[in-house]
Prior knowledge:
By secondary structure, the protein is mainly α. It has helices at residues 7-38, 40-46, 54-82, 85-111, 113-128, 133-145, 168-214. α1 runs antiparallel to α7 (168-214). The longest helix has 47 residues, at 168-214. The radius of gyration is 24 Å and the shape is rod-shaped. It starts with 6 loop residues before the first helix and ends with a helix.
Amino acid sequence: MGKVQGGMKCVKYLLFVFNFIFWLVGSLVLAVGLWLRFDTDTVSLLNEEGAPDTFFIGVYILIGAGGLMMLVGFFGCCGAVRESQCLLGSFFACLLVIFGAEIAAGVFGFLNKDKIIEEVHSFYSKSATENNNGTTIASVYHKVLECCGTKDSNPTLCLDLPADTKDCTAAITEFFNNKLYVIGYVGIGIAGVMIIGMIFSMVLCCAIRNSREVI
């Protein structure tokens, strides 16, 4: 069996190091996704009946991509060490799929930012103007975001609060902007890194094939 030599051997070890880092990054992406999904504040705001669930679509994409990145990083390390064209080809194909998923998560976070925030605004406003359960839901927003009311909401909800209490419309916008930017930047940032991995894997795969043809 032919082995890569010279500069291609350097590519082999670079690909191994890249895959180890890729595995660590996958762990980070998975952790960020799980944090966004199970963050106490986020769950409190979006876990009630009738709450919009669009936000969690981007989060689920991140979680899935992070888990797949960890698995692919492991097999990529094996492919680099064993100089297996099959494993390296599979690694490239999986990177391509994850690349698409990360781009989708990033684009989703940026393009749907206003839509998601508007959905949450509407959900809060509706809750704030209702009695019983609606008032309870509004109270959760007040507690988590340290805000109260909008210009159209029930004014009795905010009687005992200071006059300078933040408006919930602004508080919701700030809160979800921060979360959605995390999804967007993580998705697009990791997608850029994966381009390097795809280049390394294809270069090494071609080098292995050429070395075997020479033999």
